[in-house]
Specification:
By secondary structure, this protein is of the alpha/beta class. It contains 11 helices and 11 strands. The longest helix has 30 residues, at 106-135.
Length: 291
């Protein structure tokens, strides 16, 4: 059965919640404030945390921030007095799953717990999938060890990364690994295969387009740049981009702004770029095919 941690400086409230949940077969632990709760969370896994907001030493909002920084951010529910609902809503925007107002009904508590445990299972499955993805990079060669060390080092920065190698050598897998190790890991990882789209549509795919900007543009469309904002954009087969598209891409990289096709407004973007190719870009540069 699920393990639930109740955090509240009122012993009576902790006891009441423990009785409600224990009757349903849940395993319940208690903490008197955020500091005590954080120590318990680090020592043993929980499926969810139910916490009050106002507590001594460390309040519920600060506890939530600490939990969200962990590798597995446990789902958090706030229990709050009516006067602090605004604080609870603000906390939900920072990552809390739900909040319950005191005094509360047992049915409301149980329904919220059941729904949140469903979310907890999804979060655990996603983390397991992430670990499996990272396990897929199997290596033993000294050169690959150096590659993985370099990937780990560059992951913590916002530097653009170029990955070269033959088709089938795992360039996208390595790019995902870098993203998952980076400060942007909670944001989107967006991919675009530059060789798989029509040259006439490359700029629309990258930067989006305005309604009526070309035949078939019946509505405004966001490009990969805007969709990947705050996250990572992986451009595969970069060497297949036309010189015109390369020029616009270079400008976007330098200025961190884009213009949709058919538009005039400059749109700021915050993106980490990872690119890959199976071609010799140095040879392309010599031949005037790459900027």
């Amino acid at each position: 059965m699920a393990n639930i941690l109740i955090v509240d400086d009122e012993k009576r409230m902790r006891h009441l919640l423990s009785i409600m949940l224990s009757r349903r077969g849940y395993h319940v632990d208690q903490a008197g404030d955020g500091v005590e709760a954080l120590e318990m969370i680090k020592a043993a896994p929980f499926d969810m945390i139910i916490t009050d907001i106002k507590m001594p030493r460390m309040d519920g909002v600060e506890l939530l921030k600490k939990i969200m920084e962990m590798e597995i951010p446990y789902p958090v529910i706030f229990i709050t007095a009516f006067a602090t609902v605004e604080s609870a809503v603000e906390a939900m925007q920072q990552g809390a799953v739900d909040y319950i107002i005191k005094p509360f009904e047992e049915a409301r508590i149980l329904l919220t717990v059941e729904r949140t445990l469903g979310l907890s299972r999804i979060m655990a499955e996603n983390m397991n999938l992430k670990r499996e993805i990272q396990k897929d990079i199997v290596y033993a060669a000294e050169k690959m060890i150096k590659v993985m060390d370099l990937a780990a080092m560059v992951a913590g920065t916002d530097a653009a990364v170029m990955i070269t190698g033959e088709s089938g050598t795992g360039k996208e897998l390595l790019s995902r690994h870098i993203h998952n190790l980076s400060p942007r890991r909670k944001e989107r990882f967006v991919t675009l295969n530059c060789a798989a789209i029509s040259p006439n549509l490359v700029e629309s795919e990258l930067f989006g387009h305005e309604k009526g900007s070309f035949t078939g543009a019946v509505q405004k469309s966001l490009g990969k740049f805007e969709y990947a904002d705050k996250g990572t954009l992986f451009l595969d087969e970069l060497g297949d981009l036309s010189l015109e598209a390369q020029a616009r891409l270079l400008r976007a990289l330098q200025e961190k702004k884009i213009q949709r096709v058919g538009g005039n407004a400059e749109i700021p973007v915050d993106i980490r770029f990872i690119c890959a190719t199976n071609q010799s870009l140095s040879e392309h540069v010599k031949k005037g095919k790459f900027r």
